Amino acid sequence: MGVMDFLPVRPAPQDIPRPQGVAHWRYAKGDIAQLWLDCADTGTNVISEGVLRELDSLLDQTKVDNPRALVIRSAKPGGFAAGADIDGFADLRGDDAVQMLEQGHAVLDKLAALPFTTIAVVHGNTLGGGLELALACDQRIGVEGVKVGFPEVQLGLHPGLGGTVRLTRLIDPVAAMQMMLTGSSAHDRKARKLGILDALVPERHVEAAICAAAAGKLDHDTGGLRATAMRTRAARALAATRMRAEAEKKAPNQHYPAPYALINLWEDHGGDRTEMQKAEIASFVELLDSATAQNLIRVFFLRRKLKSEGKGTDGIDHVHVIGAGAMGAEIAAWSAMQGKRVTLEDVALDPLGKAVKRAVGVYDRKHLSGIDARDALDRMMPDPDGLGRARADLVIEAAPEKLEIKEKIYTSLGGVMKPNAILASNTSSLKLADLVGATPDAGRFAGLHFFNPVSQMPLVEVVSHEGAEARTLDRLAAFAEGIDRLPVRVTDYPGFLVNRILGPYLMEAMVMLEEGKTKEEIDRAALAFGMPMGPVTLADQVGLDICLEVAQSLRENLDRPMAETPGWLSEMVDKGHMGRKSGRGLYDYDKGETPPDTPADDPPDSIIDRLILPMCDAGVECLRKGVAQDADSVDAAVIFGTGWAPFRGGPMHYAKVRRDVPRRLEALAAEHGARFTPDPGWASFG
C-alpha cells in the first residue's frame, strides 16, 4: 500500500452539484473545499462577467464554510480556461469598460485575501484571464501538459485583470514582461522552472499534491528576491529601454501600441502594486479603443468563423499521403501529431527517411513530450509500396505540380481506394477541372490546399468543383478543423483564393526589381506596411520555381492582364537558384546574405500601393466570381494563409477603411499599365 491508498476518494466533477442559481461553477464543501469551473453550454471555459459574478458570491460562501483550504479547478477536460470572454468586452468602451474591469479586479482581490490557503489546479490551456484567476491563488499545481501564458498582445491588449501586477511580482519581472510582450506560452516544465507553478505532477498525483499544498508542504517561492532588484524606477527604466528596442524589431510602435503601453505601465508603476493595478485598468481601456485592438479582435472572430466551417464529423481515421516532399511530409507529420493514423508513400526511399526526420523536428518545436512524440511517430508509417491506398479514408496527393504526374497517380487509384474514401489534391497552381477527369470518382474528389510550412500556417483551402459532393466538402472541412487547421471553403479558380491574391504581390515585386529598385528597398517598404516579410523574401521562402508556376497559371487562366515575369527569373530557376531551399535565390543565403527584418522609416507610398492594392483588387475579383463566400472569408484566408498585416484587419477591411482604392488603382493603371485597372466588382463592394 502507498500514500495514494489513504487519499480521500473525490467524486467526478460532473457529479458535484451546481449551487442554486449558479450556471458556471460546481462547489464541493469539505475540509478541503473545491470549486470547479464548468462554464455552461460550452466545452471550453472562459472568464466572463458571469463567471466572475458567480465566483464573487461563492467566495463569500467559502468564507462562511471556513475550510482549511480551497481548491479551484476546471471540469473541462481540455483545459483550465482559454482566456477572457472576448464577446463580453469587445464592444465596451470608456466608463463601461472601466467598471467591468474594476469589478473583475475586486473579485480576484477577494480571492487573494481569503483567510485560508487557496490552490489552483491547472491543466491544458491556462491562458489570459484563466491564468489571472490562478495567479490570485496562493499556490498553483500544474498537471503535466499544462500551458500557461498571456496572449492578450495578439489582440492588441495586455492583461487587464491584475495579471501585469501579479506575474511581475511572482517571478523574475523581466521574464514576466517577456512572456506578456511576446504573448508566448510556457509549457509545463518551463512554467515550473519560472516559478509560475509551485508543483508539476501527473494527473494521478493531483490529489496528493493538493493535500501537500493544504498542509503547507509544497516548496513555495514567492519570487520576492528576484523582484527586489526591479523595485527601483532606475532599474526598471534601464530594462524598459532594452525592451522597447527589442519590441520595435518585431512590433513597431506605429502599428502595435500594446507592448509599449505595457512597458510604460511597468516602468512607471512597477514599484507600487496599488498604483499599477489602477494604471493597468486605464491602459487596457485606452488600448481597447485603438484601431489596432479592434482589428485584431476582429481577426479573432474571423478565426472563430473559419473553425465553424469545420463543424461535424469527418469519418477519417486513416490518411494516406502520396508524395514525401516538404509539403507531403509536413501534412503527414501534422496529421499524425493530431491523432490520425498516417501512411506516407513516395517513389523513392530517401524522401521517406527525410520525412521522418522532419516529423521529429516538428514535434520538438511543438513541445511534445517524449511519449507523445513517440506515439505520433508510431502513427506515421513510411509506405513505399503504397499499401495504405486501399485502407485510407482520405488519400491526399502532394505530388509535384505536373498535370501528367497527378493524372497518372489518380488513374492508378481506380479500383484500389475504399468505396467511401476521399481523394484530395494539394495542388496550388493547377485547376481541379483539369484534374477531375482522371480521378476514380469526381464526387469524392476535391482540393485540400495546405500552406507551407503546414505546422506553422493554420489555413487550409477546401476547394470545390462542379462535380464535388457536398458531403465530401463537409468531411474535408471537418478534417481540417479536426487537425487544428482553419478551413476556408473556396471554388475552383486560378490560384484558388489565397494564391490569386498573393500572386500580384509577388509578381509586382519582380517588376520593381526589373525597374532597378533594390530588393531591400522593396522588402522594407512591405515590412513598414505591416507584412510579416517582404515579397522578395517571401518569393525565396516559397521557392522561385513555385512562384513561376503560379505566375504562369494566373497569366494563362485569368481573363485580365497580369504582370510579366522577367526573363532572368526563369534563368535563375533553370540554374537551380530556387530560393532558400537551394541556398540561393533573390538573396544569396550561402554567402550569408540575409533579408532585412526592420521596416523602412519613411517608405514611398508608390511602392506600398503597387504591392498592396492589387491584392485588394484581386479580393474584389474573387468576390465577384464567387470564389469566396464573403469579404470576411477573404480577409480571414489572406491573414491566416499569408500573415497579411493582421492589425489592418485584412485586405477587404483595409479597402473599406481607406475608401480611395479604386481611384488609386486607376492612377496606377495610367502610370504602369492595364494590370492595375480596377475590377468591375468595386462598383458593388462596400
UniProtKB/TrEMBL annotation:
Region ranges (Disordered): 573-604
GO MF annotations in UniProt: enoyl-CoA hydratase activity; long-chain (3S)-3-hydroxyacyl-CoA dehydrogenase (NAD+) activity; NAD+ binding
GO aspect biological process, one term: fatty acid beta-oxidation
Keyword Membrane among UniProt keywords: no
Keywords: Fatty acid metabolism, Lipid degradation, Lipid metabolism, Lyase, Multifunctional enzyme, NAD, Oxidoreductase
Pathway info: Lipid metabolism; fatty acid beta-oxidation
Catalysed reactions, semicolon-separated: a (3S)-3-hydroxyacyl-CoA + NAD(+) = a 3-oxoacyl-CoA + NADH + H(+)
SUPFAM superfamilies cross-referenced by the UniProt entry: 6-phosphogluconate dehydrogenase C-terminal domain-like, ClpP/crotonase, NAD(P)-binding Rossmann-fold domains
Span of domain 3-hydroxyacyl-CoA dehydrogenase NAD binding: 318-492
3-hydroxyacyl-CoA dehydrogenase C-terminal domain span: 495-589
Record InterPro entries: 3-OHacyl-CoA_DH_CS, 3-OHacyl-CoA_DH_NAD-bd, 3HC_DH_C, 6-PGluconate_DH-like_C_sf, ClpP/crotonase-like_dom_sf, Enoyl-CoA_hydra/iso, FA_oxidation_alpha_subunit, NAD(P)-bd_dom_sf
Enzyme Commission number(s): 4.2.1.17
Record family assignment: In the N-terminal section; belongs to the enoyl-CoA hydratase/isomerase family. In the central section; belongs to the 3-hydroxyacyl-CoA dehydrogenase family.
Identification of the protein by name: enoyl-CoA hydratase
